[in-house]
Amino acid sequence: MTVTAPQNPENAAAAWAPPTTEAIPVLLYHSVSDTPMGTFGPFTVSRAQLAAHLDQILELGHQPITVRQLLDGLASGRLPAKPVVLTFDDGFADFAANAWPLLTDRGLAATLYVTAGDLGGRSEWLAATGVRLPMLTPREIADLAADGCEIGAHSMTHPHLDCLPHAVAYEEIRTSKDVLEQVLGRPVDTFAYPHGYHSRATKELVMAAGYRSATAVRNALSHADDDRYAIARVTVTSDFGTADIARVLAGEGVRTAGPRESWQTAVWRQARRLARPTGAGRSADGDRR
Ligand SMILES: [Zn+2]
What we know:
- By secondary structure, the chain is an alpha/beta fold.
- 32% of the residues lie in helices and 14% in strands.
- Strands 1, 4, 5, 6, 7, 8, 9 and 10 form an 8-stranded parallel β-sheet that branches. A two-stranded parallel sheet has the order 2-3.
- Strand 5, helix 3 and strand 6 (111-114) form a beta-alpha-beta unit.
- Residues 89-90, 154, 158, 194, 287 line the site of zinc ion.
- The site of zinc ion has 6 residues, from strand 5.
């Protein structure tokens, strides 16, 4: 199979067109590894799996872009005819070792959201579940950014931000931006809510911290009128084959994001607040909501 893609979508503006009302898939990956770790297995895809997903995306004529390119495209009124946004959460070391080479081999970029408090260490927020994955170092993050990867923030310690006192949540949101900007020497203007959990207040804190956008999960397709501070994403789990990628790209079996959170989401937040009043609890799940 021969797959061709522009080396940099920003240089292919002539092929871009005004955004349509079509759904925009934003995919969310976590770990990319051939040796999945314990309870994080469902949120891990192998290198061969990611390679097959990327080839399927290109074969179907979709153009992978970053979150920044999505926002710029929506602002300027020009997006690829069939965009798909690739995002990777958490900042695991396996991104540089396993995912980035597969992306760059195909001339593709992505947005990587980094938990800034564990840079160069291990995924301490997963420690209670027995999973302590190696994290990227500051040097590796800087090299990835220099190589064209967009770096976004993902808090300092990966808490349930919507369950924290506002001052504590703001500290997580703002400090992760500062730490990454210090490492990169460039602005960090997109944020991903840990576990996808956010409320209206959380969104306002992200805006106050100076971010231009934020991604949630919602397991729905985004679109041109989606909330810029809760962009809908679809979690790619370990059981995703190329047919599942094709299905999501075609919008089959996956809804398009609505304007508001569901009542189930609000009820679930209340249950988490009651279960852990400080909101500092650790959980094994990936970024689900
Ligand atoms: Zn995460």
